[in-house]
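A sample follows:
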Amino acid sequence: MNRKELDPERSPAAAFGKRLRTLRDERGWTQDELAERMGCSGTHISAVETGRRPPTLRFAHSADRAFGTGNQFERQGRAARNTAILEGFPEYVAREASAAEIRCFELGIVPGLLQTPEYAAAIATSAVRRGAITEQQAEERLALLARRQASLERTPAPQVYAVLDESCIRRPVGGPQVMAAQLDRLSDFAELPHNVLQVAPYELGEGRAFDLPVYILTLPDRSLISYAESAHQGHLERDNRFVHPLITAYHRLQVESLSQAKSAEMISQLRKGTP
């Protein structure tokens, strides 16, 4: 049986899952057997072990009771919950790393996959300054983003479709030099044969298909999953009955947005106004 390799350095939730699996293996328990001892399902155990679901404090307490580990899982669970990564996003990232096609729509800021390190750092630093996240959480975000961007270099490369609301390229982030480099990064991205970059102009007004950032993945088996989030909550959708309307709306947004050539021209004009 193939087992997903666990990297405890990836995040506190991953470290929790690694320890949970290690102690379970040491006792020779299956996921279902541990689940019976903890009062949950084997599917839940699997999701926590692989980092797809963060452990609740109740889950951590149950693990401590099942393994007789005092409050070790409780302490790890608190660290895993003290994260700036929204629920559902770790599983999305794991699927993104093997997706055949990636579609994204973003508002206000350039999508993470297309950000320069300086642009991403400016956003994270601002969030720390506002007290929205801690410095440790900012580092966690940036490390995760670097891994996501590195996964795009795989062979074969995924087809990436990115639609940016016009606010993404007009909103200054990090100062003129950072923004200039970011606009250059977008231009370079659009020139690659497996990428499509479009700008959804302000003129779309209330007719724009989405009011929140949306990500849609086509997996190697051609199944679809989507991920959407607000400021405080993320949601991963696996049911194609709900994903298909999103991809239909995304295709409509692409048709109504500027062509890639006109989008590149708009970015170039903005770039001429930066140092």
Summary: The two ends are 55 Å apart (CA to CA). The chain has two domains: 12-81, 89-272. The chain has twelve helices and six strands. Strands lie at 101-106, 159-165, 195-200, 214-218, 224-229, 234-237.
